[in-house]
Amino acid sequence: MIAPAHSPAHSTDWFRVLWRRRRLAAFVFLAILAVTVAYQVLAPRSYQSESKLLARLGRENAMLDPTVAPGQQGIVAIPQSREDEINSIVEVLRSRALLEGVVDELGPHAILGQRADSEDGPVTADGVHGWTTQAAVQARRLIGGAAAWVKFQLQGPPAGDREQALQRLEKSLRVQCARRSNVVEISCESHSPEQAQKIVSAVVERFRAEHLRLHRADGSREFFETQAHQTREQLDRVAAALRDLKTAAGLTAAEDQRRLLASRLSEFEVEMERVGTAQAASAARIAALRSKLAQLSPTETTAETSGVGNFAADTMRSQLYALEMQEKEYASKYTDNHPRLVELRRKLAEARQVYAMEEPTRTQVTVAPSKSHQEVQTALLVEEPKLAALQAESDGLKHAIAKTRDEIRLMNEADTRLAQLQRESDLLETAYKRYSAGLEEARIDEALLGRLMSNICVVKQASFEA
């Protein structure tokens, strides 16, 4: 079977169809218009406020944490792309902690719009416009109550006002970054233009404070104040010890004193060597003189006379003659056994023996002190005091050398201690300067935090769109 061919529709055909269904078309048009008008009248009003922030290079990019590099100059740490920094700013703006601060600052009722609804109150305007406005307010309240009842049936009991406000703020707040720029756009919708502007302004101010807080070290000022105070006390103690050591050791010009002591020690050692040589020579001369003195006689013969009569022998001969005459007398009177005669003969025999030992003549010798002995003894007497003087000089030089060496040793010990204290003082001085510079950086950070000065600039304040 061949299907009949369809002729193309003309505009007149469409018009005839619409005219035929004109009542239905009019009803549909009026229904759509009524729904649109009802939505415009009954739907809750929504207003939007917008703000823009510019993230530029600033102190947050150019400075390190002062506790990481105290006292050092700022090191610019620019990333390869600033996209990470912009994304970090966006995440901080969307963070729950920041939004909680905004909710606590403005109050949950301001975010939820409850105060605005309660402030509508009864409408007292006259005429059709007043009646329409009052009907719209009542209808919105009914629709809001119905929506709350449906939400309660579907999701259970509602959360607290704070949590509801936080959830609504998370939904109504939009944060985005402009393409290929360092500008971050912040927008928020609310039930009134004033409230939307307040929310956006609160978010911006809260973020600027949070941005400064995140880019500074908490407690850095207290840390640097404590460290600077402790370092200053240590530096004062080391300076006092250094001063006392210089005073006790008498160190005014250490290098000059060291050269003077070294020169004095060298002179003492040279003199000690000379005295030692002279002392050895003197001791050798004394030994030679004593040896020669032992070989010499203290006296010498100056004259000798032979044939000189012996006075002692002549005297003894006279006494012997007297005894012989007495022995003859006793022999004529007494017997041979008489004691007197026996005793006399004994004495006579002894006298004869002694007389026999005497020489009839003798040689007279004249003796005088030896000149050689006297010269050697005189030289010895002269040399011995010299040796004693050299010994005393040697002892004095030994004492002076020992004293000088002790002074050098004490100076070296004091110099070592002095260098150690000086090095410690230099280190403490450097540390004190670093901590002082870090303290100043911390004070600057606190001042900037108090004035909300950072690398975040408000390009566009929160707008008011009625």
Give the helices and strands, then pairings.
Blueprint: H1 11-20, H2 22-42, E1 47-55, H3 59-62, H4 83-94, H5 96-106, H6 108-112, H7 114-120, H8 127-155, H9 161-172, E2 173-177, E3 183-190, H10 193-214, H11 220-249, H12 254-295, E4 299-309, H13 311-333, H14 339-357, E5 361-369, H15 371-451, E6 456-460
Antiparallel strand pairs: 1-3, 1-6, 2-3, 4-5
Helix pairs in contact: 5-9, 5-10, 11-15, 12-15, 13-14
Descriptive report:
With 466 residues, this protein is an alpha+beta fold. Among the domains are: 41-215, no CATH class; 309-360. 70% of the residues lie in helices and 10% in strands. The chain contains 15 helices and six strands. The protein has helices at residues 11-20, 22-42, 59-62, 83-94, 96-106, 108-112, 114-120, 127-155, 161-172, 193-214, 220-249, 254-295, 311-333, 339-357, 371-451, and strands at 47-55, 173-177, 183-190, 299-309, 361-369, 456-460. The strands form two sheets. The protein has a four-stranded antiparallel β-sheet. The protein has a two-stranded antiparallel ribbon with strand order 4-5. A hairpin with a 5-residue loop joins β2 and β3. α5 packs across α10 (193-214) and α11 runs antiparallel to α15. The longest helix has 81 residues, at 371-451. The radius of gyration is 69 Å and the shape is rod-shaped. The two termini are 69 Å apart. Residues 115-129 have low confidence and may be disordered.
